[in-house]
Design a protein that fits this description.
Elements (H helix, E strand, L loop, with lengths): L1 H15 L6 E3 L5 E3 L2 E2 L6 E2 L37 H29 L2 H14 L1 H10 L3 H16 L8 H4 L10 H7 L7 E4 L3 E4 H11 L10 H18 L3 H6 L5 H18 L1
Antiparallel strand pairs: 1-2, 3-4, 5-6
Helix pairs in contact: 2-9, 3-9, 4-5, 7-8, 7-11
């Protein structure tokens, strides 16, 4: 009977006793008391050894995650020593867009259906395959180069000269967009400084050099008739504007300084493309 009466007493004792204190023994004979879990809050507190006059440290502050009011990371810095000239060219391009390019693109879009305009885009993207193919090779992206070559073969044959994109629609082969500016950035060459090119828009010293190199990889530039070359480039530009009307307006209309907004957006976009 005596043994049976001890069982409930031991059970109650185990429920009421606080978590045991764990001792850790150092190289010497001194024992240090390990952290003890609090009984009510569940926080971890450090207790001082017996006889010590060191005060007990306060409970560890809970981690509530990231500060919701933390400032956003600023865009990558892009030097702009030619800002007065760049601003003048920015105003020129802005007026050219709203007074010429956008009205022409709107009239073009009114006459030409969207599916036809997408086919025009597909055609020009297909014939500029050498730009993407070579730059993927230069960056060591052999698989992507193969994808570009395969896309060209499929779209040129099954896509009726590149007017359609069966490589993407039927075989899920997405274009691997690369240019010489990205290639130079991939090998550590910085932007240099910011440039605004007449009618072409935002660029940088590095990307302008890249555009010059890509010029020689574009088959359109090897057509003997300069009138055809200029006409093809104007068609390509206006067709692209007609498919993207509103993007430039959304970027600049709410900006305090549209020039800075476009410059920062360009810097972030190119930084992202180089890292891909």
């Amino acid at each position: 009977m005596a043994r049976k009466s001890l069982v409930p007493h031991l059970f109650v004792t185990l429920l009421l006793v606080a978590p045991a204190t764990v001792f850790a023994v150092d190289a010497g004979d001194n024992a240090a008391i390990a952290p003890v879990e609090g009984e009510t809050t569940g926080t971890v507190m450090e207790t001082a050894p017996p006889g010590s006059e060191e005060p007990v440290s306060s409970p560890t502050e809970p981690d509530f995650g990231e500060d919701p009011f933390r400032e956003e990371v600023p865009p990558p810095h892009l030097a702009d020593p030619l800002e007065p000239l760049n601003r003048a060219l920015f105003v020129f391009n802005d007026k050219a867009y709203f007074w010429v390019m956008k009205p022409v693109a709107q009239g073009y879009a009114f006459v030409v259906p969207e599916l036809a305009r997408i086919s025009v885009r597909n055609f020009f993207r297909n014939i500029t395959m050498p730009v993407r193919f070579v730059n993927n090779l230069l960056q060591g992206k052999i698989r992507n180069s193969g994808v570009e070559l395969l896309r060209f073969l499929i779209n040129t044959t099954g896509g009726i000269g590149g007017l359609f994109d069966p490589a993407k629609d039927d075989f899920s082969l997405e274009p691997r967009n690369e240019d010489l500016g990205q290639t130079l950035g991939k090998y550590g060459l910085g932007h240099g400084f910011y440039l605004v090119l007449p009618l072409l828009g935002p660029s940088s010293l590095r990307d302008t050099v890249g555009q010059t190199g890509d010029f020689f990889l574009n088959p359109v530039n090897y057509v003997d008739d300069s009138g055809v070359v200029i006409g093809a480039k104007v068609l390509n530009a206006e067709n692209e504007v007609s498919l993207r009307i509103g993007e430039y307006e959304d970027l600049t209309k709410s900006a305090i300084d549209p020039y800075v907004a476009v410059r920062d957006a360009y810097s972030q976009y190119r930084e992202k493309k180089v890292k891909e």
